[in-house]
Amino acid sequence: MMVAAAEARAESVLTMHIEEQTSWVQNFNPFDLGGRRQSTMDFVYEPLVIFNDYDGGKPVWRLATAYKFADDLKSITYTLRDGVKWSDGQPLTSADMKFTLEMMLKNPAVDTVGVGETVASVETPSPTEVKINLKDVDTHFPESLADFPVVPEHIWKDVKDPLAFKNETPVGSGPMTEIRRFTPQVYEQCRNPNYWDAASLKVDCLKLPQISGNDQMLALLPEGSIDWFGSFLPQIDKTYVGLDAEHNGYWQPPAETVSFQMNLKSSNAGNAEAFNDMTFRRAFSLAMDRTSMVDIAGFGYPVVNTHASGLPPRFDSWRNKAAEGAQDEWMAYNIDKANKLLDDAGYKKDGDGFRTTPSGKPIAFPIIVPNGWTDWIDAVQIAAEGLRKIGVNASVATPEYEQWQKQILDGTFEAVMNSRADGPTPFRGYFQSLSTAFAGRITSAPSRYSNPELDKVFDDYRRATTDEERKTLFDQVQVIVADNLPVVPVFNGPTWYQFSTKRFTGWVTKDEPVMNPEDHDNNRMRLVHLLRLKPVQ
Amino acid sequence: MRLSRRRLAVYCVAFLFAIVMNFAVPRMMPGSPVDSMIAQLGPRATPAAIEAIKARFGAIEQPIWQQFVDYVVGLAHFDLGVSVKYYPQTVVEVLGRSAGWTAFLVFTAIVFSLCVGVLLGAVAAWRRGGRFDSFVSPFSVVLIAVPPVIIALATLFTFGVTLRLLPVGYAYDPSLDPGLDFTFFGSVFLHAIMPVLTLSPYLIGEFQTTMRSSMISVLGEDYVTMGRAKGLSETAVMFGYAARNAMLPVLTNLALMLGAVFGGSIVTEIVFNYPGLGLTLYTASVARDYPVIQGQLLLMTIATLGANLLVDIIYGVVDPRIREGRA
User: Fold this and answer.
1) d(CA A130, CA A256)
2) Interatomic CA distance for residues A403 and A400, integer angstroms
3) A90, A175, A344, B27: least CB-packed within 10 angstroms?
4) Which chain A residues are closer than 8 Å to B161 by Cβ?
5) B17-73 per-position pLDDT tens digit
6) pTM of the entire structure?
7) CB–CB of A406 and B31 under 8 A?
């Protein structure tokens, strides 16, 4: 009887748009960051634990049910959920997690989370326990495993080259593991028959039509066939909500902080002298017309950031009021004040109207921004105009994205507008963009800032064991950053999220802002979001 | 059927030149596939992962002559390398996916435009100076001048978005599986209407203009006068005598226009999200996927050269002066 009832229920298919591609390629290899379908993480490979950044970074336990640091903080033991099965029915045990970690250690090309730098060795005291011995004390370690996929040893042990493996019919632990249909134009990913949390899962299949860009999206919207997506839609109230006001909705809360970053290790003597002078950076900040950047370049979707600490609004609960206020005066748009600041500091104008450093060297720099990122290019244009108004010879350069990235990593650029990858708590964004350890090694850390005082606070934070300790230390981080203004925050980009209640309900909305609502690959909470959804009866 | 040896030599030289250019141009551009491989990792790339990728793809810095030899040997085996964006797919797989759709679009557009353009050109020439001629012929010039992107957007907005008569993307309804049945063919037909209509105006204009002028010069020939003297009907003379021979310059022109048609197909495919070579080339360019760009350029070169060769051969068949070796 029960079975018959289940079969009688119509299948519920959720149509999503996660990534822009011109043709689908069947690749569900979680280690191939560039080539994997972006429905691989979370939906095929369940995370161990998700830290909800809209809930103070509180853990949502998935494959793991707990973790515990040893008293000396030199190791951490994860407890895995009992009775979890892979989609082919085999049990998921600590051996699988050990295997995955060791594969990453052996093969840096698939080390997508950086365990090569933190993990010394892995042990399995029991089928549900994984003990990870760390190279250094790092209480922040669980957050660094946020994007870690556990893969089944019985499948992957025979894979010769784990980066080139396309994993076309994946065996996974997540809710949607069965690839039912795969064509260049559309693919369907359906219910895992052995999903451990099947009781929460009301969606039977995900359907992902191939959509190559925003223009294509705009043309498709009148059909009303897409349930969950996150696209840039100009004048969204008209172009999307207006089509079907009863069902179409969106919520685009502010996301990462976008800042102007100067190459403090620039090989150009004049630029290096200016960039390393805090007075110059403050004048730079005063020349930023943030409101125009948001309204003109960003269609009003971003939100201005006028805090010298650059803390994103989503982390308001971490905000240290003492760090702000005093230094936030540098975050307004005030050309006169900026000019006066530079005049008093001895930045004299030479014959062509541009300023030189106090020691008389010329200052001139292009700000790089990837070609094709039109809204960002417009924002950089506005920044360059502001800088020229205060006698600073700034221009705009638009290299291709690969070149842009290469220049950042090689240190061959002068200035850049860039966002940083935030973690579930604000710590990761600051640590990876401002610590000496990461300086210039990843694209989130172009400025090559190095401040021993700040490094020490970061180190203490990674040894902290209680939330109070972390909060106190992070308060200090904000003070140091606001006082020194190593980068110039300008605005927070929007989170891209649109939905339709025509076929499904349970969407996260601004009235119930419980999690990051995005369906993109950078948001692990999308799994929990999926489990909230119910088909309309 | 006989092609002169000199013509064949020209084709060979052109082909070799294309191969060499194809090898040289991407290597003269800034950036490298390794960089774009790393760029795909995005902000989450760990330093160790970047090093590993470099070691894997970038360490094989061989001397340029060795690279060229490998490239030629690869070509001989139809091995164009591995795509960066769609790693680990090969270039041949990537292009194979899309070449058919572009060929289908271009071929359909050419056949459709030939029928329409030649007919309009012939009639305009037959009644030159008449009301039909003085409207259609200037209009053709307009058709040639309008950029395909304008036509594409106009059709998309009119028939696709506003009237919602025709599908706005894909080569066939994504919910169908390709098969030999009417539903599938119908869907392919429906999805091809707008792209074909976008490609056609330029072609129709070109064919009409060429046909008209070559027809006018043919109409003064003796055999046309003789046909009329024989008392044949207007249509019989027009199509049986004049149009047949006036077609030859149209065919020549077609081979020359092929490059422009490919250019138009790129824009068309991007606008209509049509999974052909144009869309692939666009993506590959944005992603700096040199192996794919290289393979694609080679394919287009071969297609253009091949079309010219084909026209040469057809000429030999249909032009009696060449057939009898009196050219």
Assistant:
1) 33
2) 5
3) A344
4) 219, 222
5) 888 888 887 777 766 767 777 776 666 677 777 777 777 665 455 677 887 888 888
6) 0.84
7) yes
